[in-house]
């Protein structure tokens, strides 16, 4: 029950939902940046939704199966191929012993999620195997190292479910222009009226400085009256604005506390979408009321509550 | 203490208890933390104390904004500060020496106290742990006497060895693991601060810390690494 990593590419890490209940110790969250794709990959195999998967960034990645099994691939279209045959994401598929799965280059999105039956095996560090390189926590060896060539991954379940595709209406739209919804808050009252107008009525471009810690956005300069702020806890998706006026959206590998003023935080759905925006992508920010945001998030979570794909109608199955 | 509650994310509320950094605030934050943990129970995902605030991350599957606010008020009703002796007192041995604390002579010069004076003053005070952050187990402590306060280095170092004791403005901290950093380093501490296997941090918000100067021999006996600080360009 193993996959051999032939090429790890730019960055491939084991991720689950991340670490919780430990933020007061200075331990970050980690976890799959596109948490929605991570969940669908597990759902397709009937796994616990937050089981460990491989997060593959931008491509250059290849694994060889050392036995027959069923895997699932969701998230970015990284030009995946099973040997030479193209393989579209958002489905589970059978890979035979000796076959090679390669993810070559980004065609749509940034991060792909590869799941295996029951989830990949890795030691739990603070109840999670999420790889946080900066903190030296999680991953295959528990020490924060990303996956490396020649490493072998085992998974937890002996049985493989039948392959199937995610129904089209459930596939997140990564192609149209991203409109990222923001729950307003934190220091928003300290930004100038012009800056608030600009924040939600301008195009923002994803900068090259974008990783699992944060994504810098380029656009109009946002001015905040507040300079010396006392550090405070940072939620996922927080939009902090350093003195240069260019916002940084903080993602899974962010620090736990920080002292830059913030406009608020992206909704979890918007965080997942931003995690798929390559540098150069143009996007917009839109304010969203807290009540609506909470309702929306509950609806989003409800879609995974019914039985998993492997138990669903045969009509969904693909050859 | 005057409580303000603000949303900071779809499932996070910021509890603002104070407006300034002060050692006397910590017993209040500590008491509030305990009460909130008890009141929220399994609906609490994370509670992050930091100087003047508590960020409360709750489970949206169990509570909405109104319910979370009601629980907060319930938890903090008639709050009394934790007793002065609360929070564990740690005595941490430090080898104060220029070979492992390259800014020790500089701080001695700036303060007019000399290296020996800096060591004496720094080790006389009992510090409060205000918050953990930056890295697992990294405890922001204070307040350092104004005479010893020193701004961060203009250019942070790429690599600060584990155990390095530093000062930045009126705060002091020990780096739990090797990391980049811009604090003024004045010594090294041999005791591990963060246990990766167990995920335990020696220092917790609200704890108190005293640094005790030790000689090199004692530092080594306690497991310290005396590799001299690499001079970097």
Automatic annotation (TrEMBL), chain A:
Pfam families in alphabetical order: CT_A_B
Keywords of the record: ATP-binding, Hydrolase, Nucleotide-binding
Protein name: Biotin-dependent carboxylase uncharacterized domain-containing protein
Organism encoding this protein: Pseudomonas linyingensis
The keyword ATP-binding is annotated on this UniProt entry: yes
InterPro entries: CT_A_B, Cyclophilin-like_dom_sf, PxpC
The UniProt record lists the keyword Oxidoreductase: no
Domain of life: Bacteria
GO molecular function: ATP binding; hydrolase activity
Residue ranges annotated for the Carboxyltransferase domain, each copy included: 24-303
Coiled coil: none
From TrEMBL, chain B:
Start and end residues of each Carboxyltransferase domain: 3-203
Short name of any one Pfam family annotated for the protein: CT_C_D
Molecular-function GO terms, alphabetical: ATP binding; hydrolase activity
InterPro entries tied to this protein: CT_C_D, Cyclophilin-like_dom_sf, PxpB
Keywords: ATP-binding, Hydrolase, Nucleotide-binding
Ion transport as UniProt keyword: no
Xref: PANTHER family: 5-OXOPROLINASE SUBUNIT B
Protein name per UniProt: Sensor histidine kinase inhibitor, KipI family
Organism field: Pseudomonas linyingensis
């Amino acid at each position: 029950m193993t996959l051999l990593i032939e090429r790890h590419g730019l960055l491939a890490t084991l991720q689950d939902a991340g670490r919780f209940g430990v933020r007061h110790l200075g331990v970050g969250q980690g976890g799959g940046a596109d948490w929605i794709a991570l969940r669908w990959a597990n759902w397709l195999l009937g796994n616990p939704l937050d089981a460990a998967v491989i997060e593959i960034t931008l491509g250059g990645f290849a694994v060889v199966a050392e036995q027959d099994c069923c895997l699932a691939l969701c998230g970015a279209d990284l030009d995946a191929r099973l040997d030479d045959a193209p393989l579209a994401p958002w489905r589970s598929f059978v890979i035979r012993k000796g076959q090679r799965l390669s993810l070559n280059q980004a065609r749509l999105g940034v991060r792909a999620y590869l799941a295996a039956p029951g989830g990949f095996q890795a030691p739990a560090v603070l109840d999670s195997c999420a790889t946080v390189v900066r903190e030296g926590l999680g991953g295959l060896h528990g020490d924060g190292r990303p996956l490396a060539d020649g490493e072998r991954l085992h998974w937890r379940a002996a049985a493989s479910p039948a392959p199937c595709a995610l129904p089209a209406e459930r596939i997140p739209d990564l192609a149209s222009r991203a409109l990222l919804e923001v729950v307003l808050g934190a220091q928003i009252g300290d930004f100038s009226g012009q800056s608030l107008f600009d924040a939600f009525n301008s195009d923002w471009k994803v900068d090259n400085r974008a990783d699992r810690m944060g994504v810098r956005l380029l656009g109009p300069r946002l001015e905040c009256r507040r300079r010396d702020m006392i550090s405070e806890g940072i939620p996922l998706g927080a939009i902090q604005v350093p003195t240069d006026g260019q916002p940084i959206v903080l993602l899974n590998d962010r620090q736990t506390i920080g002292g830059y003023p913030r406009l608020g935080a992206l909704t979890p759905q918007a965080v997942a979408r931003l995690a798929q925006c390559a540098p150069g992508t143009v996007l917009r920010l839109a304010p969203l009321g807290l009540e609506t945001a909470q309702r929306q998030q509950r609806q989003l979570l409800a879609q995974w509550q019914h039985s998993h794909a492997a138990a669903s109608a045969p009509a969904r199955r693909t050859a | 203490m005057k409580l303000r509650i603000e949303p900071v994310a779809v499932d996070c509320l910021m509890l603002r208890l104070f407006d300034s950094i002060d050692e006397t605030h910590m017993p209040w934050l500590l008491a509030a933390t305990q009460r909130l943990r008890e009141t929220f129970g399994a609906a609490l995902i994370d509670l992050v104390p930091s100087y003047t605030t508590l960020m409360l991350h709750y489970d949206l599957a169990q509570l909405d904004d109104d319910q979370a606010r009601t629980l907060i008020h319930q938890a903090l009703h008639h709050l009394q500060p934790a007793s002065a002796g609360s929070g564990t007192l740690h005595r941490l041995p430090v080898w104060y020496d220029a070979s492992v604390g390259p800014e020790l002579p500089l701080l001695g010069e700036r303060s007019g106290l000399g290296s020996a004076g800096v060591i004496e003053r720094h080790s006389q005070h009992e510090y409060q742990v205000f918050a953990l952050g930056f890295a697992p187990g990294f405890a922001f402590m204070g307040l350092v006497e104004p005479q010893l306060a020193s701004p961060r280095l203009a250019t942070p170092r790429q690599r600060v060895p584990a155990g390095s004791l530093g000062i930045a403005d009126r705060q002091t901290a020990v780096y739990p693991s090797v990391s980049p950093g811009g604090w003024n380093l004045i010594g090294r501490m041999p005791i591990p601060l963060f246990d990766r296997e167990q995920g335990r941090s020696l220092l917790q918000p609200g704890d108190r810390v005293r640094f005790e100067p030790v000689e090199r021999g004692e530092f080594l006996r306690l497991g310290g690494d005396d590799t001299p600080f690499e001079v970097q360009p």
